[in-house]
């Protein structure tokens, strides 16, 4: 897939939040699919994660998303809220990756 592939990463802090308010995993995933469709990206993975940012530093789902990008299966990482992503700490900073084509 490579340059046109996108990984969608949806995260909430608790099972209660995952179950159903405006930022539920399902709502985030649907919104991110819409973002991916506009420039014609192909969704190669949707990775939901229920993990508290304040209690757990390790995020297996985010690591999985970064692995897909590092393996070259996708070049784009789409997240609901960049401030809630471990990428803001420098864990996985290439989104899109340097191999992807620029999009308007």
Explain this structure to me?
With 104 residues, this protein is α/β, with parallel strands linked by helices. It has one domain (2-89): Rossmann fold (3-Layer(aba) Sandwich). The protein is 29% helix and 20% strand. The protein is built from 3 helices and 3 strands. It has helices at residues 15-20, 25-37, 60-70, and strands at 5-12, 42-50, 76-79. It has a 3-stranded parallel beta sheet with strand order 2-1-3, sandwiched between helices. The longest helix is centred in the N-terminal third of the chain and has 13 residues, at 25-37. The chain is flat, with a radius of gyration of 13 Å. It starts with a strand and ends in a 25-residue tail after the last strand.
Layout of helices and strands:
Elements: E1 5-12, H1 15-20, H2 25-37, E2 42-50, H3 60-70, E3 76-79
Parallel strand pairs: 1-2, 1-3
> What's the CATH topology label?
Rossmann fold
Order of helices and strands: EHHEHE
Q: What does the average pLDDT come to?
A: 75
Number of strands: 3
List unreliable stretches of 5+ residues.
88-95, 97-104
| Alpha plus pi helix count | 3
Return the CATH class. Answer: Alpha Beta
Can you tell me the number of structural domains? 1
CATH architecture: 3-Layer(aba) Sandwich
């Amino acid at each position: 897939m490579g340059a046109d592939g996108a990984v969608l990463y949806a995260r909430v802090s608790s099972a209660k939040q995952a179950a159903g308010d405006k930022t539920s995993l399902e709502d985030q995933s649907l919104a991110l699919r819409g973002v991916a469709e506009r420039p014609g990206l192909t969704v190669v993975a949707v990775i939901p994660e229920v993990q508290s940012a304040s209690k757990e530093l390790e995020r297996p789902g985010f690591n999985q998303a970064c692995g897909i990008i590092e393996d070259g299966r996708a070049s784009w990482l789409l997240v609901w809220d960049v401030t809630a992503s471990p990428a803001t700490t420098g864990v996985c900073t290439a989104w899109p990756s340097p191999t992807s084509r620029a999009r308007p």
